[in-house]
Sequence to fold (313 residues):
Amino acid sequence: MNKTMKHYGAALLAMFFWSFSFVWFKIAYKAYEPMTVVLFRLTLAAAIILIFSKVTGKLEKLRKGDLGWMLLLSFFEPFMYFMGESFGLKYISSTVAAVVISTIPLFTALAAWYFYKEKLTRTNFAGLLISFAGVTLVVFDTAYGLSASPLGLALEFVAVLSTIGYAVVLKRMAARYNAYTIISYQNLLGVLMFLPFWLIFESSVTMQTPFNAEAFLAILKLAVFASILGFIFFTYSIRHLGINRSNMFVNLIPVFVAIFSFLILDERINMQKAAGILIVITGLFLAGMKRSSLMFPFKRSGVTIIQKKRHPD
Fold:
């Protein structure tokens, strides 16, 4: 039971740090452009985790044939995810974007079934749907009318698909490397992928921007808590819980954002949002219930699936 709580706690902490990043992004954007924020964040994160991993002896050497997988991992996230999310928010509101992002667990369930034969009971799947319904209550106002740019929605779904691709590849890599190695290479390769685009589109503007201590501190927090600790906890969760159960916590992000807005930005949580939060928690409880060995008779160890015989009726 204690180990199970640690696994779920790791996923919860990852979502907590990623949710808080919305506040830090808002502060950083007061002084710097989006791609600059991402590049500075990844550069700081790569330097910190690489030095720490090297000094502590946690940095593992990539095995033959795994460089391609690591490049693919970094391509999905941080590169494509941040590209989709950052530019998508130029065309649609953060409210609509949050709803799109909250569909990740539903699409991930299909990806996990296809690639790793992870299955969900009807109760698990119903829990995901209930949780998503709760998210819509949290992020939508009763007076809010949906009018979103198709381009903006398409870009946000790029972020969704990137997260799913990331989780699928991460499942493979987490069985072969520790979290520190994965995060070190992921951030370093992410920097190399973003650098050409930053040089072309934002470098001249950034060079003319005076140093802003508050914005830089926000970027440093993004690097340490979101790009390092958040991904370390999520990698740990993926390794022990699998893709489905780890990604179901994504639905907590808009809930955390609503709570942070109440505590930090002094925004009110009305009855609708409070009800949505309770529904999300209920859905996550159902989604996290253990699978029935009778309905889904297999056991996972790493990425290996061992088929068992079905019990007679």
About this structure: Confidence is low (pLDDT under 50) at residues 291-313.
